[in-house]
Amino acid sequence: NGVNDFFAGWLISVAPAALPPPPVAEGNLWQKRSFEGKGFIVTTNEVTFASTAEKDFVLVKNPTASSKLHRSNELVLTLITESQNTTIRIYKNPTITTNGTALVVNKLRTSGNAPVSQAFLQPTISSRGVLVAAYSINADSLNLPFDLSLYLEQNESFLVTVEGNTVRNDYVLTYTFAEE
Q1: pLDDT over 70 at 13, yes or no
Q2: Angle, CA 100 vertex, CA 174 and CA 85 arms, to 5°
Q3: If we measure between CA atoms, which residue out of 140, 163, 160 comes closest to residue 150?
Q4: Phi and psi of 165, rounded to 5°?
Q5: CB–CB of 118/40 below 8 Å?
Q6: Residue pair 153/82 in contact by the 8 Å Cβ criterion
Q7: Pick from 21, 27, 138, 142: CA 20 to 30 A from residue 8's CA?
Q8: What distance in Å separates the CA atoms of residue 39 and residue 106, rounded to the nearest whole number?
């Protein structure tokens, strides 16, 4: 009858608009790689250093024979200690004595690829390698958007160090990257 036809037509025209759109790999390259299951995140808990010397904080490695290109997306380092300054440095290809404590590399999509890159807390380093960046912050967060432009080839690594101006500074680090 006419009423049923009206509601059937109304449902056909309105129902699709009420449904959420299907996931689509649109947006910037980071969003596309994450959608494809190639995005990862590493986070530390709060870490306290009881010295003003430069400390080896986090080591990120793309292992030998990984067959992947590691592309850094963003690094956020927070100095929690109030009214304090710290210098943050990033070195490429340090000489590693011991890796340190393994950090969990989490997939951003449950159905995503398994990560091959590795991250470690407080490694032992005999030579820090090539300094590629240095920053200073005052009781704040440093947000470094690399936009997938800092690369680690197979068997390459980078080291994040911190150097506080007091004998007790607390830090937290979160890092996102893609593997291709």
Answers
A1: no
A2: 50
A3: 160
A4: -100, 5
A5: no
A6: no
A7: 21
A8: 9
Number of helices (H) and strands (E), helices first, in the chain? 2, 14
Q: Are 61 and 157 in contact (CB under 8 A)?
A: yes
Question: What are the pLDDT digits (tens) for 76-89?
Answer: 999 887 778 899 99
For 104, the token pair is 């969990």
pLDDT in tens, 153-172: 999 999 999 999 888 889 99
Say whether pTM exceeds 0.70.
Answer: yes
Neighbours of 73 (CB within 10 A): 23
Helix (H) / strand (E) containing 12 = helix 2-18
- Of 50, 143, 137, 61, give the one whose Cα is nearest residue 98: 61
Measured CA to CA, the distance from residue 46 to residue 170 in angstroms comes to 6
**Segment 117-128, tens digit of pLDDT:** 999 999 999 999
CB atoms within 10 A of CB 132: 13
Residue type, 179: E
Burial of 49 per CB tally in 10 Å (0-12, 13-18, 19+):
buried
**Eight-class DSSP state of 22:** P
